[in-house]
Structure formats: C-alpha cells, structure tokens
Amino acid sequence: MSLLTVNNLSVSYGAIEAIRNCSLRVEQGEIVTLIGGNGAGKSTMLRTISGLLTPKQGTIQFERKEIQGQPPHRIAQSGLVHVPEGRGIFANLTVEENLQLGAYSRNDHAEIRKDRERALELFPRVRERLKQAAGTLSGGEQQMVAIARAMLSRPRLLMLDEPSLGLAPQIVQTIFQVIREINNSGTTILLVEQNAAMALKVAHRAYVIEVGSIEMDGPAAELASSDEVRKAYLGAH
Amino acid sequence: MSDFAQTLITAIAIGSLYALIALGYTMVYGILKFINFAHSDIVVLGAWGSYSLSVRVLPALGYGLKEVPPVWVALMILLLAMIFCGAIGFTIERLAYRPLRRAPRLNVLITAIGVSLLLQNVGQLSFVFGASPQDMPPLLSDRALATFSFGEGESARQLVIGMVDVVIFTTATSLMLIMQYLVFRTKLGVAMRAVSFNTDTAALMGIPVDRVVSFTFVLGSMLAAAAGFLIVMKYPSISQPAHTIWVLLGLKAFVAAVIGGIGNVRGAVLGGFVIAFVEQFGAFYVSSNYRDVYVFTLLILILLVKPSGLLGSTLREKV
C-alpha cells in the first residue's frame, strides 16, 4: 500500500477545470516529482492534497485513510506537510516564531527541541537569523526557514511546491542538497518543480502534468532521457 | 496648571476606554480583514448587561440600589458581563460571519451592519433592556483619592484624582497588558498573528483557523464588555441601547484603531489615547461643542499624511 494514493482526482475553479482525472501515488521513502509548465495544475494538485481545495471528484488516501474534504489543519496534523509556493513565510513573525509554528500541534517539548536543532543543522544560516522578522530575509533564506519549519512538524510526507522559484543557482543547489538529505534520513517527499532538470536529478520517480492531466510517468532517470521530456522541459533540441 | 492636570486625568481615563474598544476592532480586522460594525453594540451590551446584572444581583445579595456594595460585587459584575459578552461575540461569529468565510469582504461588511442593527433593536425590546435610559446603581464610591490645591483667594483651584478614573485606568491597563501578553508571548498569540498574516498558510501549519478566529472574537468582546462596564461607572445615566451616543462612541474607537494603524494591537492603544487627548483638550481649551470634530479632523489629517496609521506598516511579501 502506498503512503499517498491520488485516484481520478478532478478539481475546478468555478467552471474551469484545473485538474482532470489525475492519479498518482507516492511510496514510502521515495522522492517523487511532479513536473510541468506554468498553469499545468501542479500547485492545484498539492493544494487539493493538503485540503486547501476541495476536489470535485476522486479520492486521496494518506496512510490508508481517505483525507479528501478534511480541513487543512487536520491533514497537516496527520503528518502530511505542505510547503506552499512562494514559501509561505509569516513575514510579520520572527524566524524563531515561524519555526515554533511548525511544531504547533506537538507537545513533546524535548523532541521538538531536538528536531529544531536538527533543522538548524541543515540550514546554519537560519540559526543566525532567529531573532529577525522573517520578512527581512532574502528569498533563499525564507525558503530555508519554510523547509526547516516543515521539518519541525515531523512530516511523514513532505510536499514542496517550487522550492527553487526565484532563487540564485547556488542557493538552488543548497536547497536540493538538503532535499536529498531529508529524504536520506527517512522522509518521503513529493516535489513540484518547474526546474525539471534539477527535479529529475534528485527524484526517484516522476509525473509529467500538462493542462490538468498526467501525460507521462516513470522512473526519473528514464523520463529525463526521453525525447519528449527533453524537448519540452529540459531545453534540448 | 490644575485645569491642565484635571483635563489630563480625564483624557487618560477616557483614552484607556477608547483603547479597550479599539483593540476589538483592530484584532478582528487583523484576522478577517473586515470592520466588525457590531463591535460597538457589544460595548452597549456590556454597559446594559452590567446594569441588568446589578439591579438583580444587588438586591439578591441584600444590598440596596443606592448604597455602594463591597468591591468584590463590582468585580463579579464586571466578570459576568465579560463572560456574557464573550459568549455573545462567539455566537455572532459562529452564526453570522463564519458561513461567509469564503465570501467577498463586502458581504461580510454588510452582514456586520445587519448584526449591529439587530443588536440595537433587540436591545430596545421591553423584555430586554427597554427603550428608555436608566441609572446605574453605584458600584464604586467616587470619592477623591487625592486632592491638590493650587493658588489662593479668587484664583484658587483644586485638582481631584477620583476613584472612578483610577479604577478605569488600572482595569483597562491590566486588561490591555494581559492582551499584550496573550498576543506576543503565547503559542496561541503566535497562531493569531500567523492567521492574520495568511489564513491558508496558517492552516497548513496545523493551526485550527476557525478556533483562532472564535477566540479572537471572544477576546475582543470581553474587552468591549469591560469598556461598557467602566463607562457606566463613570457616566451612570445609561442612554438607551440604540442612542446615537453609542454609535459615536464606537465610531471614535474605530477611528482610534485606524489612527494607530488598523490591525496593529499597540497602534490601537496609542490611537485610543491620542483621540482622547485631542477630544478632551480641544473640548476644554477651545470649545466643547466641537469635541467630535477634533477627532474626525485628526483622522483626516493622519490619513492624508500617513494612510497606514501611526504604527501601521506596509509589509510587502517577497516573491
């Protein structure tokens, strides 16, 4: 049984169908990436899985339980953690308070402290900024705070929406390296990316989504070498 | 000198009342981004609720309506009024505003006006508070705590620091300090500020947004109730529930929130004191006929110079 199974999911904004009959699954321990162009429905997929949007039809199972239609805070509490696009940092709070919110529904203070320490080891730069208002950080640092914060929720599935968006290449490298480290330490990851090259390099399996439906799927390495994907997403001629 | 000091004392007392009410406006705006027009009616409910409780509780406890009961009675009535208004605030949010969580802001705003009218009119029903003014039984003795004399002979003046003003200031300040602690030092406060910044992202953190919103309404309504109670301590003749004096009071507290920077908790407190100073000093030194004019003129000036209010910030999100 997969950790996450999305079955025949359709989501619409009013009359416009953003996702049509999409199915995907994520196995325990994997990094799965969902790639596709602007407006293909990638973010809609994540927002529906995390409960911010309600699907028109289809089911979402996380750890064998159907979760579609549940309120987002309930889904987050069950260990399915979503780092939204644009980082979703609370600019009006300090970095420390942002991290605190990651552990909002936990009460095991000793463990929280350990997780906080581990998250700060992943991102030493965040440690230097703890007292600062999160809004004053650079884009890269904000992304780091967002991921560190998500780790404090002890996710069993971590969903990252465009973590590389708008970041300098060097920082993108750092972020992807951390994604790999997080996965190595046992966290399953569903990664949505426009930067297909990077995503396919780090992921085990991939799905390609185009105008609301999943067009291809398979092992990441295989997709990375397919002509179609190379032409459409990797800039090959 | 003594005139100045006396006006100052009044301004501080009135300012803390405006601040208490302004906090309710600003917290709800901070979280739901709409002006809760029914907030001033919660103040009325606090005032009239205190009256209704007093005329029932005092005789039941064996005190007359003309004598001053022990301090704990006043404290109990204050607490009961706060609990009562907190419950009403909770109910209003649950029934009127929550179903509109995803609706356009304008719909919520119009609903708020509707709730305000409902409260005003229900309050006037004969079996609720009635449509005529009443006199609040004295719960505190308004004796002078300190008297200072200035000058001699013809120009002799006295400065009196009255019990009620001191009680108003200390009660309001303690409540505001508790609020400040809640919002800036507790986990729930962090959650409130997170929800006010971005509801969706807050939910993704596992924060039960609806519960945070309910809590905000309860808190704001309790502060409004305290303000209502303190107002009838200072001005015992209570105007009828739909009197324009209440509307004006709510409006000025709203102006205080805007002047301080709506959505900003410290700004609301600052704004409350600023408008009370302008109003009281203007009334004393210029003309008391224009006391409302000073407040609204100040509003216009501030909006021209700093539209976001004194402590309001224009935070931009980084993309």
Give a description of the structure.
The complex is a heterodimer of chains A (237) and B (319). Chain A is of the alpha/beta class. Helix content of chain A is 37%, strand content 26%. Chain A has ten helices and ten strands. In chain A, the strands form two sheets. A six-stranded mixed sheet of chain A has the order 6-7-8-3-9-10, sandwiched between helices. Chain A is globular, with a radius of gyration of 17 Å. Chain A starts with a strand and ends with a helix. Chain B is mainly alpha-helical and 319 residues long. In chain B, 69% of the residues lie in helices and 5% in strands. In chain B, strand 2 (144-150) and strand 3 (157-162) form a beta hairpin. The longest helix of chain B has 31 residues, at 2-32. The termini of chain B are far apart. At the A-B interface, helix 2, helix 3 and helix 6 of A face helix 6 and helix 7 of B.
Most extensive chain interface and residues per partner: A-B, 29 and 23 residues
What is the count of DSSP helices of chain A, taking H or I runs of 4+ residues?
10
Class of secondary structure makeup of chain B = mainly alpha
- What percent of the residues of chain A sit in helical stretches (DSSP H or I)? 25-40%
Oligomeric status: heterodimer
**How do the strands line up in the largest sheet of chain A?**
6-7-8-3-9-10
**What structural class do you assign from the helix and strand content of chain A?**
alpha/beta
Distance between the termini of chain B: 56 Å
CATH class of chain B: Mainly Alpha
* CATH topology-level name of chain B: ABC transporter involved in vitamin B12 uptake, BtuC
Strand content of chain B: 5-15%
Please indicate the count of domains of chain B: 1
